[in-house]
């Protein structure tokens, strides 16, 4: 279980987004189009260069068929 704890420490909204996009079988360009972004702007979200806003999280969640809360889960394994 140590690998799981280490992996969980490194999860953030940008990584969650990338994992969910890949699992949905979408390219960055396809998901960007679904949520109304230019591919370059979407790429900034997935790299973590831009934060994912509440509105964008809802658009992404709708496009990916999940809850917007996936992007706001608190990482409880980190120290305050």
From TrEMBL:
CDD domains: HTH_XRE
PROSITE patterns: HTH_CROC1
Domain HTH cro/C1-type: start-end pairs: 17-71
Keywords from the UniProt entry: DNA-binding
Superkingdom per UniProt: Bacteria
Gene3D superfamilies according to UniProt: lambda repressor-like DNA-binding domains
GO molecular function, one term: DNA binding
The name this protein goes by in its record: DNA-binding protein
Species name: Fibrobacter succinogenes (strain ATCC 19169 / S85)
